[in-house]
Amino acid sequence: MGRRLVLRRCESSTGTTMCSPTVILRLAGLFVLVSVALGTWVHPGWYGFTAFVGFNMLQSTFSGFCPLERILGARGWLGCQPRRAV
Question: Which pLDDT score is estimated for 70?
């Protein structure tokens, strides 16, 4: 039998999400598309930002820590809420 791939939401360390997973995925996708376009038409150095976003998406599946979620929650942008103390 093959292994099943399990995807976790981008969550804070307390287990309570501050943002909708849809918001995180949309912004990450937007960052990737914009940075690829900038890398193609402006300067190849923008591909580094694409790699940075991809790395953060990958590490958040293992650690549950999502920097974008923390930033949006701290600012209260896009309906995200600040993390509450336990």
Answer: 83
